[in-house]
Amino acid sequence: MENEKTCTGPENELDVKDSSRRNFLKQSSLLTAVALTPGAAVKAAAMHVDEKIAAVFEKMPLKMEVNGKQQNLSVEPRSTLLDILREQLDLTGTKKGCDYGQCGACTVHVDGIRVNSCLTLGVMMNGKKITTIEGLAKGDKLHPMQEAFIKHDGFQCGYCTPGQIMSAVACIREGHAGSETEIREYMSGNICRCGAYPNIVNAIQEVKDGGQTV
Ligand code: FES
Ligand code: FES
């Protein structure tokens, strides 16, 4: 019986710990599976919760200046600046591309700084000055950057163009248009699926070199 193992001692403690760990992992896997594959009951409960949350969302007042005009609005706290501009103010020049902050199509200026309006909550804009592509021209006179985009053929389908132009204006204002490389770097947040990049760079360089007011 010398070689027979007893039921106590360090080895058994390890067995107990191992067993606890296995149980823990099994329970965690089960919970993860439930969370990832909700059944009808879970979905129904989630929808119910969504409705309750939506009901709690009271509209909030929002005062902001858009393209020089004061706007007194009532918005849901979850509304993005992009949706407010497009759906409440009918300023559809600002485009919704990815809605995830990855394409730059929704670029506008907030107090002169370029932002992705799809990532900006409207309620954060209280008291701010917003400029959209519609506010860039002075009456019938196009902004120099708009003229340069036309002259250099800086677009094809045009979907990304409002965002490109708003970014381009900010790029020069920021002092980030010193070279082609710098322009490409600081315009890299604006994606153009038509690949009009060389012409966009030419347009920006012309405005920068011409010293036009931006
Ligand atoms: Fe805002 Fe793409 S729509 S970054
Ligand atoms: Fe078509 Fe840029 S001009 S996506």
What does this entry look like structurally?
- The chain is of the alpha+beta class and 214 residues long.
- The chain has 3 domains: 2-55; 58-100 and 120-132, Beta-grasp domain (Ubiquitin-like (UB roll)), CATH 3.10.20.30; 136-214, [2Fe-2S]-binding domain (DNA polymerase, domain 1).
- The chain is built from 7 helices and 5 strands, in the order ααββαβββαααα.
- The protein has a 5-stranded mixed beta sheet, covered by helices on one side.
- Strand 1 and strand 2 (69-75) form a beta hairpin.
- Helix 4 (144-151) crosses helix 7 and helix 5 runs parallel beside helix 7.
- The longest helix has 27 residues, at 10-36.
- The relative contact order is 0.10.
- Residues 155-161, 192-194, 196 line the site of one FE2/S2 (inorganic) cluster (FES).
Summarize the structure.
With 214 residues, this protein is α+β, with helices and mostly antiparallel strands. It contains 7 helices and 5 strands.
